[in-house]
Amino acid sequence: MVPGGGNQGMIHGIIPIAIMLHQIGGYTRMWGAPSYEGALFASMATYGTMMTGNAREDLLNSKLIIMWGWNPANTIWEPGTSLMLAKTKEKGIKIIAIDPIFTDSAAILANQWIPIRPGTDTAILIAMAYTIIKENLQDQAFLDKYTVGFDKFKEYVMGEEDGVEKTPQWAEKITSVPSEVIEDLAREYATSKPAALIAGWGPARTAFGEQYSRAANVLCAITGNIGINGGYASGFMRAYYSRERIVPGGKKTRDISTIEEMPKKPRLQDNPVDFRAPPRKDALYKIKGGTNPANTRIHYNDYYEAILQGKKAGYPADIKMAYIAGTNRLNQFSNVNKGVKAFKSLEFIVIHEQFLTPTAKFADIILPVNTFMERNDAAVPWLGSPYYIYLNKAIDSMYESKSDLEICRELLKRMGIKSSLLDLNEDQILRLFIAPRKDIKNYNKMRRDGYYKVKVEEPFVAFKDQIEDPENKPFPTLSGKIEIYCEHIAEKNIPLMPPIPKYFSHDEHYDSPKANKYPLQLITPHNKRRTHSTLNMIPWLEEIEPHAVWINPEDAKPRKINEGDLVDIYNDRGRIRIPAKVTERVIPGVVVVYQGSWYNPNKEGVDLGGCANVLTNDVHSPGGAFPMNSNLVQVELYVKKQAEGL
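RE: above sequence
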């Protein structure tokens, strides 16, 4: 099964499909998430949990905010984020933006923009640590009390491990950021306590992206900015409050009868394919949470290779069929042209879809699923905000469309299989899903009002309990402390997955021999007019901001490229053709193609839709990070041939 995040409800989307497939023998699952896998791995390794960071309101207590690879004006991390950042700016709190692009957030909010070469963020973070340690600016008392492994990290940073001091001068050669800027940034972050370093996910979507996220986490610890108001524990997810569930067999903290008319709960059957399967070697399987470690699962970026090669190449299955839901898979994952080849090799493809997406065009059967407006559901807001939403059905299903739940129920019926869970109606299933959440006191009230707001006494501060009472409330790591050196990683003995964060180059980096052929670094950020590939096919949105490749004048001039010219962006994986936007808002040596535009190849195989993933590489780093922003390309002016038919 190929799932995606196209539906954020509790009971529709991929959930009923998974339940259905469990009951007919199971399925080969994927692991990894292109949005955040590097950040998730780093959070689990460092803190033992994915719930990190402070509530946005707490930013008003900061003396300094560093937006690292984070553009909240475009990527909405909680609806109130931009408002809160505007309030911090009004209050006079300094904001620094670090990014290869002069983003809308940098332009509107930041006091300082530090342009950086893509994929080199780890080097700056480590060089900042060098300056802090060299000048004795670290919070040693915090390190001694709450962390393990600082000495080992210090040995690497100061060059004792490998003979290379990770100085700002060392980092300048890698990152193109002047050493004095790195030194000033390090001093300002270390001495402006409390300070919030918010490490965005963009730099974690690079080769070895988990090293960037780990380095950011460690820098937060070195400066003692974790567990305090105005600080910030960089990591996977920020929370507004500690959302808890009722633990089966544990103390009941509220009266379950408030979830009125509870049906008898059926057992949710486990996926037979990976139930109790041994863990992958590279998984942090001793730490609860994060990505399921079963060795029967295939990384999303190995998906096409697994289809094409199967067991003979060491994959856990010879895949013959794909069941796709909630995703425009072909468009939104790396190496589209290999994906086309893989899809064509499958015996059967079925998809739940409302539109003829690039992925749906390859399906043998398209099951017309209805929209969120035609079914009831409930949703947990993104990033742990203190409310739930009840999604009231606005209209009955149009034409022949059905909900994911109804589709799966009908398929099981035709196979002669009874499902104690899927045979329940929407409301009964929602009650079952809501019941374990002890912060929802009354389901009927939530359904009637359309939302349920959780009362929060004060802005949430991640790890405040651990800092205030370390003896009774340790960190959920194996050591009970913040792990600058992760013993669980060390025991795996994987050279490119070190137990402390380190900087690595790779074969699609600026200093790779491949850069002689493809000298420009491609980054593929999120676009403000799309939600991934959703909303792409709306003409008036295209009029507002046409899809184009951003290129710096220094790179455009020698290529004789002017504003609006059609250009080809290409590498060994494919070629796309879109207009050029010549702008100084992206640094020299870097081009930007915003992700989400629909793949639309011509008869020669050139993508005229400008799908960035035609050019991205379908590999992953040991921690699972996707290299969506680590790809080399060349750009050339498209000169239309006059010969007929070309």
